[in-house]
Each structure stands twice: as structure tokens, then as C-alpha cells.
């Protein structure tokens, strides 16, 4: 039975490459055509494959419907939270998770610092979109025309001397973030607060969320915080792997 299931599942990646006829499927599986036909008929009955008029097979609509339903029911916060807690235990600083929704970047999870000096941020609260590291990652992943449309309609408050001053500067920063794959906010929102962030990606490689570690200068310097970047990126990769189904990782090393 396990061999039959294995063979049936092996058909799906083959058909993902494009339609294939019975002979091609049998050759790929290394089985007789009668065996391949029996597997294809079963998959066809369940809507996982579809037989075209030219007698070739392609992936069926039900497979796409199930994939879409599964993606819609994934809760990135639920998946990410254990990883955020583990990262917080390792570094001791505040950890955030944020998403981009309805033209705002919102915190959807937070694990508090173990230190007495803590950040004023709340779950559900929009971030300072023109300076926050998580916002830079989420906006940098947008197609270029969307990026330009968003940056053109934003206000650019000068929270500090390091705040992003205008759309041109913001676009330049987003291009840099897009290329390097991580982002920082070094005193852009509050002079005394620094932050380093990494993207969480879905199965298609697009950024679905961003996570960050933040700390005040009185606890750790900006340079010291930046040494945590490899750990932050590794945590984001672990979350991405679990969210997209690429890995079954149980935590960050």
C-alpha cells in the first residue's frame, strides 16, 4: 500500500512540469502502463489529475483548490510564535512579527524583552511605516509599480535626524533592502531604539511577514545588535520553512 501511495504521489511533481501521456508517466515511475493507468484513474476520480482530449494528463482543479484552502487557513502567527519565543530566550530582546494589510504594517505578535527597559509597542498597532525595519522588508517585496505607488502617497515625518526624509530616499532604501534580504532601523523612529529584521517567505518566495529584534541603546549598542543578524535570519528561515511546508524544523539552532 505504501508503495502505491508513493507512486501515486510521484505522478504529481511530473505533471507539475506539464501535461504527460500514459507512456511518459509509466516511464517516469518505472512501472507497466497498466499500473500507471490504474494510478492515474484513481487520481482522476478524486480530481487530482485531469485527462485532456489529447489523452494527456495534467494536474486537476481540486489539487489547486485544496492548496488554496490550505494556504488561507495557515496562521502565520501561530506557526511563528514558538520560534519568536525561542529567539527571545536566546537574545533577551524584544521580538516582533508584522504583516502588511490595507496599506498599513501591523504588529501581530510580540515577545517582551527580559530587561527592565522595554519598548512601547502593541499587537495590532501600526508601525512607523517609513522607518520601521519590518515595514521596509514588507514594502521592498512589492512589485516596483506598487512600491512607487505606496511611497508616493506616504507622509515622511521626521521622528529623528535619521528618519527617512522623502519618497526618493525611501525607494532607494527599499531597493537596498530588497537586494540584501534584511533591514534595520537604527534610531529612525526613536533615537535610543535600534532594530534588525528579516523576512518570512511563503512557498512562492514572496514575503508574507517580517520579524525583528529591537533593543534600546542602554541595553545594547547598534553594533552589538547587528551581530544578532545571522540568528534573526536563521529564525526567519525556520519560520518560512515551516509555513511553506518545505521543512519540518523544530527550532533554531
From TrEMBL:
Residues 2-61 form the HTH iclR-type domain. Pfam families: HTH_IclR (PF09339), IclR_C (PF01614). Residues 62-245 form the IclR-ED domain. Keywords: DNA-binding, Transcription, Transcription regulation. The keyword Repeat does not apply. PROSITE patterns: HTH_ICLR, ICLR_ED. InterPro entries: GAF-like_dom_sf (IPR029016), HTH_MetabolicPath_Reg (IPR050707), Tscrpt_reg_IclR_C (IPR014757), Tscrpt_reg_IclR_N (IPR005471), WH-like_DNA-bd_sf (IPR036388), WH_DNA-bd_sf (IPR036390). SMART domains: HTH_ICLR (SM00346). Gene3D superfamilies: 3.30.450.40, Winged helix-like DNA-binding domain superfamily/Winged helix DNA-binding domain. The keyword Transcription applies. This is IclR family transcriptional regulator.
